[in-house]
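Section: Multi-chain targets

For targets with more than one molecule, the full set of components is provided together so that the structure can be written out for the assembly as a whole rather than chain by chain. Components appear in the order listed by the source. The example entry contains two components.
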Amino acid sequence: MKDVVLWELKRRRTALLWWSIGSVVLAVFIMALFPSISDQAAQLNKVLNTLPPELRGLKTGGAKSVDVGDPVEFLNAQVFYATLPILWIILSVTRGAGILGREEQSHTLELLLARPISRVRLLAAKALAYTGEFAVVCGATLLAIVVCAPLFELHVGSDKLAITTLYTALFSMSFGYIAFALQAASRFTKRSATAVAVAIGFGGYIVASLSSLTDWLKWPVKFMPYHYFVPLDPLQGKSPRGLLVYLVAVFVIGTTIALLGFRHRDID
Amino acid sequence: MGANGAGKTTTIRLLLNFIQPSSGTASIMGKDIVKDTVEVKKHVGYLSGEIALWPKVTGNEMFAYLSKLQSGVKKDYLAELISRFEAEPDKLIGELSKGNRQKIGIIQALMHQPDVLILDEPTSGLDPLMQEVFYATIREASARGAAVFVSSHNLAEAQRMCDRVGIIKHGRLIHEQAVKSDENLAGTTFRVVLAHPKDAEKLRANRALKFISHEGHTVVVQPKRPSPRLSPS
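Its structure, encoded as tokens over all components, is:
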């Protein structure tokens, strides 16, 4: 199993390096804007809070008002709610659907399954490799956030920054895991699994952002993962219980479905 | 052996548990191909008909990786195979020609000296000289005691490699027989078109003929001994 994981990481090393650089640069760039934004916070808040609530909600996680001069609210709205998850969801869905799907599509999966390795072990190795790839990118970003935040007057505890980055990473990873489980369990192609995961991820983002402003969305939003993603909670030291339940559910159900399906299905 | 779509590749993919049987059982070395598939694959070397390899790695990197997943690879034997097939293991696989990719595929199937070789149209893409090298290597494996299970639609090739030939049609084994190297299999099978389908029973009753199949007006038979009165269809 270790050999499959190392093989995947080795093959992806260049892509991982670029993803890590991109993610770090984006996070640091946004944080670097904070000193100049906080100087003009009063005017910016005034402008931002006069925007139509639908537009404001997309950037603030549905919050009805926002104070961009506050480090916690700035990090919540500008870094953790949208920017990093969107970037990481793209990575996670691409890899989640591809780590097994691409091998099956190109028929190299047969080379592995012709060896004495059980499907369950192969699946576990692929899931670990996917987690490892994601951990490299998110770990580099976490380090950059914790190191650079104080440099840009974002005085939030390192532990809170670390835990919020971790939750954001797990939340983003969950969509890739949905794609991975769908692809492993059934004969979903890489493209179909990606489409479903993206619809759940980004569709959920839009619905969750607009839900506090539109009554008829209040019920369906409960089925959207983004509804449970409130990075403000861990930044303020609160436990994100809803998010934890969602994450456990996705990883347990996803793993069960993937294992049951992949063990007995035909390989294309 | 069988025509395109007869079920040769499907049979092989079933044996390797890539696809699940809807009914029936099969075993390799006494092990069930579904329940004991991991155990079975310790003894099997497989070459797929449409060879698919990782294009962005070199042959050497691939051999190293697969050697970690399958025990029994001896460096000396691997080096010998590379030299014998004149493979180019230092180049990226994606940069190799079809024939050279096929050589890499053959080597990965043989490198652990498996007890059972399952090869789906193995000489596809190889030039005639390399085909000879391949036949020699297969004969060696066979002499070592390995069972070689090959799919092909090339009768001459089957005769060079096999002790027995089975003919598959619409997913069913319709005929199986031993092969003698001096016997021309192609000349002993006859397709007879009958004026009246009921005449098939007369052919079936003929002890000099082996009755192979019957569909409508067409009957396929094989004389048990070559007959000068029949000409090959």
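Chain A has one domain: 2-262.
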